[in-house]
Amino acid sequence: MIENLPYILFSILIMAGVTYLVRMLPLTLFRKKIENRFVKSFLAYVPYAVLAAMTFPAILDSTSSIWSALAGLAVALLLAWKNRSLLTVALGAVATVLIVEQLLVWFQLLTF
Amino acid sequence: MTFGKGVRDGLPICLGYISVSFAFGMMVVEGGLPAWIGVLISMTNLTSAGQFAGLDLILSGGLYVELAVTTFVINVRYLLMSLSLSQKIDPAMSGLERLLLSFGITDEIFAVAVQQKEPVNSRYLTGLISMPYVGWALGTLLGATAAEILPLPIRSALGIAIYGMFLAIIIPPAVKAKPVAVVVIIAVVLSCLFQWVPGLNQLSSGWVIILCAIPAAAFAALRWPVEEETGEAT
Q: ipTM for the complex?
């Protein structure tokens, strides 16, 4: 049925294997607490740095229009600043994007 | 740190994942592959950007070595996360548990696990991974088989969901602690430079994340070393 099925399956195996190794090696090899103060501090700050770099500027490209993305970003920032849950922030941003894009369609500034 | 608490903490991630993997499922079918291939990729990889890039390469008949290098570069951030998490998990966790549970380290699962006050044990981590794993596979299946049930405007709006989750994770600590705010600002500025400055924007997204995160976290670590035993930045 599918052309190149062995190629596709072996490709998936490679992707899965590489992804697993980068996740598995540090967690299994570093069994002890790291004592070095700099390394400890560095690792404590890493999550925020990684997530911030993944969010900006990619969030601006995540919808059908920069304006809906900016509106969604603003609402997400406000909800997150108010300490709302992951889900509330995510759905608040989605709802905002949906509303703004409907308005843009209404004013014929966007077509789907 | 019970299994149940892990499941509860994983539920919002699960719902976010359904929306993101939905898009992945649609892409698989649009590329001419059957739905089960998409579900197989999601169940064996459990990663967003890496899967999207890998699917592109498979559809264009890329070389195995290309696939391996691309996957590595996009997912190299997990090295940092796994290393960071190794300092947070219960030292009593066995080698086998580490081998199994490390499969489930994603951006969001990592972020939630690393923010726990107590050391993370295997029961909690198993619970935390379970729902997002199911959601990721289920969303892929739905996207691949039933994309047309969702109108296009809703599918477009769902694209922002994952970033909303990221913001919910980074903003509250950044408001509370100045060092975290500085880390976020440095990472964002660097990331924007890599996106918009000619030359720099040739780099793949995996390296960009590493090259933004390392200077930002290193600067804050030099300037404001953390005091607590737990190594938590608060």
A: 0.86
